[in-house]
Specification:
The complex is a heterodimer of chains A (125) and B (131). Chain A has 125 residues and is mainly alpha-helical. Chain A has a single domain, classed as 3 helical TM bundles of succinate and fumarate reductases. Chain A has four helices and no strands. The longest helix of chain A has 32 residues. Chain B is mostly helical. The chains are: A mainly alpha (125), B mainly alpha (131). At the A-B interface, helix 1, helix 2 and helix 3 of A face helix 2, helix 3, helix 4 and helix 5 of B.
Amino acid sequence: MRPCSPNIQNYRPQLTSVLSIANRITALISTVALVAFVAWLVAAALGPVPYDALYALAASPIGRALLVIATFVFFLHLCGSIRHLFWDAVVGFELRSIYVSGWVAVAASIVLTAAAWLVGGFFKG
Amino acid sequence: MAEPRKPTSSSIAARARGLGSARHGSGAWRAERLTAVALVPLTLWLVASLVALGGADRAAFVAWLGRPLSALLVILLLLAAFRHTALGLQVVIEDYVHSAAKIPLLIATHLLCFAICVAGVLATLSIVLGR
């Protein structure tokens, strides 16, 4: 096993490195959310019984908690990926820009998640 | 010190295998970005739509998905999202899996992404066309 770089035990976490690995972790969790969305579509196509069963699962306390987490995780991946698209176009590579866009991505994800759940009726229903 | 053996054409092929193909190396990278660009508006639209539905029962969900525009955008989203997912998972697997499991895992990932995507598209079509 070759030593990995950066050496994770000794490497001080900072916004840049944390958001870097976060974009990969949020991608993996978003994959689960995407498969869950397909399950929702299939349940809707199959009929009321599977749909209501899946609905009860989603509306349970654990289901709602997971949905809120999934919403935040998805928005963090979306905002993080938009940063990456700008970097691919060689825009925003200065250290200051990288930190500003990083904090904007985190703040926007929190605001978007809060907006989605406060506007939506899923908690009321 | 042993004389270095002259590489044969088959040993060169063995060394290059799996390291990317000539002239097409950026194809997967570009497809991942292209689908990402498509997914920005598509996913924002989906989240906004689901928020507006606000915990709809099946009748309301089917009525929404039964509209041609909703179905079209959901199908476009599924195609882009699963292509994006397959390409992204491929990069993760290539970065972290160095055992014999790598190739079977890559094949399984791409086939599963395709199968689940088709399931979602068929479910959407059955709602918008059938009913």
